Amino acid sequence: MSRFFYQLGETLSSLRKNVAMVASVVLVTFISLSFVGAAALMQIQVNQMTDDFYDRLEVSVFLCTESSSASACPTGAVTADQRENIEEMLQNGAASQYVSSYRYESQDEALQNYLAAHEDSVRAASVTAEDMPESFRLLLHEPQEYPVVSELFAAVPGVENVADQQEVLESIFGILNGLTVVALIIAAVMILCTVLLVSTTIRLSAFSRRRETSIMRMVGASKSMIRTPFIMEGVIAAAAGAVLACAATWVIAEFMLGQWLPQQVPGVVFISAQDSWIVMPGLLLVAILLAALSSWLTVRRYLRV
């Protein structure tokens, strides 16, 4: 125990002597791990949004109108018999095994939804109900089965086309995943800077204490006794930066994702501060392991004992 307290005292003494360098390590570690934490939170958010949106993913079976092209609707606008046949497919036919629920949207309802979504558009004023197609909006048991459902309705009389929101969602999630990758690349560069800065700090600390190290070597101190304070110095500085990064991660999750964004983007379920606690142990572990490894390699190379 006395040996541990001696090493801790030596470490704290060295930290006081190298305040500027230690502060640099703390700040660089804080910034780099904050990027890592933000990227991790973003990926958790993307995964949650993916699950949430895919659970609500609708497949739209658009019916033929008077203005539909002849190639898509050779028989013209959908008839009552054709509409009933499509609904029978959804209730008891081939498509029923894939559809968990469905709803019918008339031309008037389609117009009202269009006007609500494009109320500021100049073109909206000239759109009439006859311009809007009737449709059946389907929720599937498994969103991945969309190609099967699309194929079932592709050649059904009265159906103009079948569409889903998956392509749009995949492009959005692709952008979000790209931002995650960018954040991780920046974090990787910053972590490399942290490792180099820790190594430089330990090297300068070893140089400034070379006289003390020589005396300890002469009185028979073991290698671990001499090297441990230097390694602890790097670990403590990096751990302090990691604690700040954990605090920043919690702030992002609590105030930005938990409070601000839900007000700006209603209807989207955002992660909460609880999810940040999943990320924090990883940030601390990364900081301690990288600092310990870089300090140990530096001590082995520049501190001959």
UniProtKB/TrEMBL annotation:
Span of domain ABC3 transporter permease C-terminal: 185-304
Keywords for this protein: Cell cycle, Cell division, Cell membrane, Membrane, Transmembrane, Transmembrane helix
UniProt keyword Repressor present: no
Subcellular location: Cell membrane
Spans through the membrane: 21-44, 181-207, 228-257, 277-299
InterPro entries, per database record: ABC3_permease_C, FtsX, FtsX_actino, FtsX_ECD
Topology in membrane: Multi-pass membrane protein
Residues covered by the FtsX extracellular domain: 57-162
Function text: Part of the ABC transporter FtsEX involved in cellular division.
Subunit structure: Forms a membrane-associated complex with FtsE.
Similarity comment text for this entry: Belongs to the ABC-4 integral membrane protein family. FtsX subfamily.
Protein name: Cell division protein FtsX
Source organism of this protein record: Nesterenkonia rhizosphaerae
